[in-house]
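Work Package 3 (structural annotation) set out to generate three-dimensional models for the target panel prioritized at the project kickoff. During this period the team completed the workflow that converts sequence records into discrete structure tokens, so that structures can be stored uniformly alongside our sequence database. As a representative example, we reproduce one entry of 490 residues exactly as it appears in the project archive.
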Amino acid sequence: MSSRRVVVIGGGLAGITAALDCAAAGARVSLVEVRRRLGGAAYSFQREGLEMDNGQHVFLRCCLAYRELLGRLASDGMVSVQPRLEIPVLKPGAPTVRLRRGRLPAPLHLAGSLMRYPYLSLAQRVGAARAALALMRLRPERERLDDQTFGEWLARHGQGPEAVGALWDLIALPTLNLPAAQASLELAAFVFRTGLLSGADAGDIGFHVGTLGQTIGEPALRALGEAGVDVRLGWRAERLQRTSAGFELQGRRGRGSSDDGGEPDREEPSAAGVADRPTDGLSAEAIIAAVPHTRAVTLLEPLLEGLSRVGALGSSPIVNLHVVYDRRVCEEPFAAGVDTPVQYVFDRTEAAGAPAGSQYLAVSLSGADRQMGMSVDALREVYLPALERLFPRARQANVECFVATREHAATFRAAPGVEALRPGAETAIPGLVLAGAWTGTGWPATLEGAVLSGHAAAQAALRSLDGGQPAGGGERTAAARSVLAAGGRP
């Protein structure tokens, strides 16, 4: 075991990835996490006897880094990827429409489905196809794409509000956590080109068959332990200072509140097998801060002058509604909504362990600034009738449970100008490294972006320990290395 010591602050996907990479390269690694679980923003909780996920996190076939992390966690059997992209689209009073890819190469693989899409006129379909081709021709290195919104660009290419709502926002909202009208053109172009237009199978959707706790949190705890990482849960990092040998991190054992200062995770017991021990400090030659950007500013600004500028990244909320019916009302495993307040709905009956005969539907609401201010009763009054309009059988069903979960700072705000604010992994202080989906991965705030940031952070930390030399590959896979070499883009 090497004498090189790395401390990772934060147990989300970025922190988990960075810790595994550093341990695989022979470093002595400690990971501290303020919550009493791993997984960061992707976690599960118990309510009404069910195991619920805080949000419905999906990924794409092209998300190689995230899929490979699941392989390292031995939980890749807890996810499934569509054999072929297919999005059921629901509209009140109308039959289900399916957006699916055909057998032609990209970008023609979506042409047939688009030309048959009934929620746009023929002229709008042709216009949408032309706009998609124009997206393919954009050159971020030559054009200032981050200075304008995706909505402005779509309008210049003949896409009116009806086309945006019925087509473009089906992808923009869940991936950018903002509607096209507010989102950065650069990030939107990356999403559409990477996920839908560059490769025929790139956009096939991946789902978590199990809960997020079963897929990420619990397997990560096992994998980190097997890798020799010292995991300390319920440990709040409070002060970081430089020393002659590197860094000293002061902290305390707490109740397990969230990194962003939110409410404690009252429903989560201590993780089995992890010793709860008071700790005053940890010393290390390298520190990886894998925490939300607001937390990073608070913790690191005394050392990193100017870090406060990342506070301008802002945040965008997500609200999830968890509805349990006493009978089956929906036959789709997931679906998107058009002309309805329901953006996306997922059948989580089996994963949550719902009683036989019942059905648990999770409604995911991205860019949910308005819904964040609504009471549970107000959400119920709006969304239960909306679900009934999409699923007529719900009108005769009894609602056994209605729960709202809110992530007020679910992602950074993917608005114009955001890319200039996202820092890289390395900082002005050797050995002090940043990680998280908010750093400059090129991706929006996604599972893939978080894992890529963890790889980049580990590489930077190990390089600093080796005196600036390129870090060893360790167990980082060839695909992950190739993505990093491409600047975070597959």
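The chain has a mean pLDDT of 90.
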